[in-house]
Amino acid sequence: MHSIRFSIHSDAHQATLLGQCLETLCRQHTPFEQGLIEDIQLCILEIVQQIINDNQYAPHTQSISVTLMLESDKLVVDIEDQGRGFNENLLQVILQSSTILDPLYMDQTLPDQAFRFFLLKMTMDRISYRNENQRHILHLEKNFKILNSKDNSEIHLGKSNRQQEGLAV
């Protein structure tokens, strides 16, 4: 199992290094197609940017910890911070919604955080959020193999949920 941990101190320039590392890790050690790697990279960087934006006026510098782990069957990403945290109710509403957002035709009134949550929902296979010891932890997983629930056959290996639904550009 490969594991990499980043600590970002509310600096968008450091997030760029995270994106490059994530891309290299996925390209070299996963079956993901380039389009899916870019989708995952976008999701992670958007969430990190949201945390940076939310904490930019905090009295103390808040660090963001991002852990990238490769397990035998999936990529796991944990994003932790001690800042304001996410709107947990909004996240749950979006995760439980059957609505599929097409970014090309999105409603411009959608809040930034909601748009980022929709990106996560469309790209990742498992999303959970919890508060633990004054830390906010967003746990994300992307499986290497996507199983068809009807016959358990492998389909769309390495493609994002958006690519499978024909929404990818």
From TrEMBL:
The record's section on Gene3D superfamilies has: Histidine kinase-like ATPase, C-terminal domain (3.30.565.10)
Which SUPFAM superfamilies does this chain map to?
A: ATPase domain of HSP90 chaperone/DNA topoisomerase II/histidine kinase
Q: Name one Pfam family in it.
A: HATPase_c_2
The residues covered by the Histidine kinase/HSP90-like ATPase domain are 11-140
Question: This protein is called what?
Answer: Histidine kinase/HSP90-like ATPase domain-containing protein
List the source organism.
Thioflexithrix psekupsensis
